[in-house]
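task queued by scheduler; priority normal; single chain, no ligands, no partner chains; default sampling; output format set to structure tokens
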Amino acid sequence: MRKVEIYDTTLRDGSQSEDVSFSVEDKLRILVKLDEFGIHYIEGGWPGANPKDAGFFEQAKKISLRNSRLTAFGATHRASLPVGKDPSIRALLAAKTPIVTIFGKTWDFHVKEALRISQQRNLDLIYDTVAYLKKRVSSVFYDAEHFFDGYRANPEYALKTLEAAESAGAECLILCDTNGGTMPGEVGEIVKDMVRRFKTPVGIHAHNDSECAVANSLIAVENGASHVQGTINGLGERCGNANLISVIPGLKLKLKRNCISAGKLKKLKDVSRFVSEISNLRHFKRQPYVGDSSFAHKGGIHVSAILRHPETYEHIRPELVGNYQRVLVSDLSGKSNIIRKISDFKLKIDPDSPKVLEVVRELKRLENQGFQFEGAEASLELLMKKAFGLHRKFFDLIGFRVIVSKRREGENPISEATIMIRTPKGVEHTAADGEGPVNALDNALRKALETIYPQLRQVSLIDYKVRVLTAGKGTSTNVRVLVESGDGKHKWGTVGVSENIIEASWQALVDSIEYKLLRG
């Protein structure tokens, strides 16, 4: 089975999606998740482009990746500066990643109109940048921007740009369909030709403007490409990038290419939903392989057939990608997911216990209200511990009050929270202010608990997301709150849902505190 390397650019290309804005903490959390999933290369961003990416690379230095290699992305050096004096090249090296990916102009139209330099000067920029970086980092990948458009317009010059990168020492030549307009048949023919011409491995970077990015990635591999770039859930500028959530199982299960282990592939749905939650986007229920509807069947001939032989209406077994079969009239799925989580959470629970089905039913009830536990697995673990009698109550709420007041035009509102709780040492009644009502409530709760549970001083609220959603019957509108917390060593996510944003926030905050206290 030939190996294909997967290169994820969610943290750079994906962040260019409309309605997506990753914080540094978001990017770090996704980085860890993708490393656990087994992605070969993770592109962290463009260090010289903005302070956020620079901050990400500084924080990423503290993370030890087990499966992935972090890459920094940048452009060929400026024509007006020697390569060693270009600030953007220096920023790439300062990121201290083992791999740097450089993009350069392939299309003579761009060389003339965008860079406004000679074709030879552009070839010099490519060669000089790759050669300079190659002496200073472990590996250099070369992204041939607009390659297919450039090859179509001037094949001789497009080839020269790849030759410049190869002769400078690039480890991979990635052919980019930057405008996303090339059809699969043409991609296959061109990739096959490039694989024949060059000794250096060839890769594919496809955009989805013609709804062909996944097809173009797969046909490129069929014609010899050994490196595929894309994003989780197809995030990216305009119509997005090749969706790795479809590319990876296509490679593994359909083309029989070695790109990820079977065990890691079972986490595909989890990764997809995790990135959706961190992106604060609703997960697409009809997304191939991992959507809730991907293996859902409703009534009639389909249901009777799949209950006897699932392959009658399913192209793969859903469990291979971490999904499950659903019969919409009488839903029979879910138990296997809970059994898997029992193992993941290392809970001492009999998987054959009848309470497993009770947990499944409770999860379905909560999901109907709008709860989603992807990105909030601490809440899921607590729910399971409560169901199996493994939970311990650390405090009881007597009541709280949150006040937001604005005293004059032009000044920020003031938020104050008062809380009363019952603890093993008696009743605590405290008040605190904060940067908004939720922060004030969080501060008041901690103030009441920290003298009894000093380990809570280690905990901080890292991120807070709100989504308005419609769930259940009728037009009942709920709010889902996702909270990320950390103690310097670990990070965990919790969730709350209510028609009241403060109540939803309270649920997520309490889960965050209880999770820490149970962990010790």
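post-processing summary
- The longest strand covers residues 460-470.
- The chain has three domains: 5-260, 346-394+459-520, 395-452.
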